[in-house]
From TrEMBL:
<feature type="binding site">
    <location>
        <position position="186"/>
    </location>
    <ligand>
        <name>Zn(2+)</name>
    </ligand>
</feature>
<feature type="domain" description="Amidohydrolase-related">
    <location>
        <begin position="44"/>
        <end position="367"/>
    </location>
</feature>
<dbReference type="InterPro" id="IPR032466">
    <property type="entry name" value="Metal_Hydrolase"/>
</dbReference>
<dbReference type="GO" id="GO:0006046">
    <property type="term" value="P:N-acetylglucosamine catabolic process"/>
</dbReference>
<keyword id="KW-0378">Hydrolase</keyword>
<feature type="binding site">
    <location>
        <position position="207"/>
    </location>
    <ligand>
        <name>Zn(2+)</name>
    </ligand>
</feature>
<feature type="active site" description="Proton donor/acceptor">
    <location>
        <position position="262"/>
    </location>
</feature>
<comment type="similarity">
    <text>Belongs to the metallo-dependent hydrolases superfamily. NagA family.</text>
</comment>
<dbReference type="GO" id="GO:0008448">
    <property type="term" value="F:N-acetylglucosamine-6-phosphate deacetylase activity"/>
</dbReference>
<feature type="binding site">
    <location>
        <position position="241"/>
    </location>
    <ligand>
        <name>substrate</name>
    </ligand>
</feature>
<keyword id="KW-0479">Metal-binding</keyword>
<dbReference type="InterPro" id="IPR003764">
    <property type="entry name" value="GlcNAc_6-P_deAcase"/>
</dbReference>
<dbReference type="Pfam" id="PF01979">
    <property type="entry name" value="Amidohydro_1"/>
</dbReference>
<keyword id="KW-0119">Carbohydrate metabolism</keyword>
<feature type="binding site">
    <location>
        <position position="137"/>
    </location>
    <ligand>
        <name>substrate</name>
    </ligand>
</feature>
<feature type="binding site">
    <location>
        <position position="123"/>
    </location>
    <ligand>
        <name>Zn(2+)</name>
    </ligand>
</feature>
<feature type="binding site">
    <location>
        <position position="218"/>
    </location>
    <ligand>
        <name>substrate</name>
    </ligand>
</feature>
Length: 369
């Protein structure tokens, strides 16, 4: 049994001042009264961050095996992430399948000091080879027999694809029926392609604005389809991938837009050159991560920085918290994470008034502080 510090707690029912108690990994009691945090100087207890798009950290890639995946989950836990998806990239079938099989163990058993892996985000390989962004050049059209092997290896919770590719409408329908959240990403499809894909069951969009057909007033593209019709979408709020003005536009248009890091192997490392995947080199410089030709290749973002960036561009702390915790959990259909209430997992982050991490608790276990 453990108890949080006396603080402003963002519960599922709003702000409360007091403490929460956990037992057997779940919240067992809230000893707190309604409060406006502006009227005191106490710190904050927020739901742990839920990151649905994580490739790596500390020089490790989730495709490099179980030990790498554990190291990545530990690094992100240091920054307040309590639950996450291991996110893969385009690769030949045998390589991708082996990587997924190696992820089964860290997904099944959370390592000490680490965030919980909720499953896998398969970012490709079923994307448009003309819109790879930072992905390796192993894009291909989806075949359900191949996808079935991936689904059998690990719980694939999210899959990114380009809906304009032949046969993908049927794939979207089949995966949606299996409970997989299919997202549009790395796509050159039209606005009409995007609308049709949503009708076929697409649930969201991968790193909105990036690696998709842009918004033009006569050709709205995938960005236009998202802004006009999406209920959920992910966005990278590192202030490099997307301009703050475009971020605010998306927040107004998409009710439950949530934020991800798209964190790469360079996350947690100093500026320099690093091996990314498939033998490629990336450079981390001034917060950005790029391929030799200047293309953005993931980020060096952590979720605590994401939260501060959101507040910095004008969101309230409650709104920002929802976008890094509650909405991504809801998107996956996970009701007992991303929010603080009796019976929920005791996943929370303690912040000071400057929104700096003081303590991180994952399933009742203190992993920071």
């Amino acid at each position: 049994m453990s108890t949080s510090p006396y603080a402003n707690i963002l519960t599922a029912d709003g702000w409360r001042l007091g403490t929460l108690t956990s037992d057997a990994g779940r919240i067992s009691a809230l000893h707190a009264a309604p409060v406006n945090p502006a009227n005191n100087t106490y710190g904050y207890v927020l739901p742990g961050f839920v990151d649905l798009h994580v490739h790596g950290a500390d020089g490790h890639n989730v495709m490099d095996g179980a030990d790498a995946a554990v190291a990545i989950a530990r690094r992100h836990a240091q920054h307040g992430t309590t639950a996450m998806l291991a996110t893969t990239v385009n690769a030949p079938h045998s390589r991708l399948l082996a990587s997924l099989q190696a992820l089964a163990e860290p997904i099944e058993h959370r390592a000490a000091g680490a965030a919980r892996y909720l499953g896998v985000h398969l970012e490709g390989p079923y994307v448009n080879g003309e819109r790879l962004g930072g992905l390796p050049a192993h894009a291909r059209t989806a075949v359900m027999d191949e996808v079935e092997q991936y689904l059998a290896a690990v719980p694939v919770r999210v899959l990114t694809l380009a809906p304009e590719l032949a046969g993908h409408a049927e794939i979207i329908q089949q995966l949606t029926a299996r409970g997989v959240r299919v997202q549009i990403g790395h796509s050159l499809g039209s606005y009409e392609d995007g609308v049709a894909a949503l009708q076929h069951g697409v649930a969201g969009f991968t790193h909105l604005y990036n690696a998709m057909s842009v918004l033009n007033h006569r050709a709205p593209g995938m960005v236009g389809a998202a802004l006009a019709h999406a209920h959920y979408s992910e966005l990278i709020p590192d202030l490099i991938h997307v301009h703050p003005g475009a971020m605010r536009t998306a927040f107004r248009a998409i009710p439950k837009l949530y934020c991800v890091t798209d964190a790469s192997v360079a996350t947690g490392l100093p500026d320099g050159e690093y091996r990314k995947d498939e033998g490629r080199t990336i450079t981390k410089c001034m917060g950005g991560v790029r391929l030799p030709d200047g293309t953005l290749a993931g980020s060096a973002l952590t979720m605590d920085v994401a939260l501060r960036n959101l507040v910095g561009i004008g969101l309230t702390l409650e709104d920002a918290s929802n976008r890094v915790s509650r909405y991504p959990a809801e998107y996956l259909g996970v009701a007992d994470r991303g929010r603080l209430g009796i019976g929920a997992w005791a996943d929370y982050v303690v912040l000071d008034r400057a929104l700096m991490v003081q303590r991180v608790v994952v399933e009742g276990d203190v992993v920071v502080g």
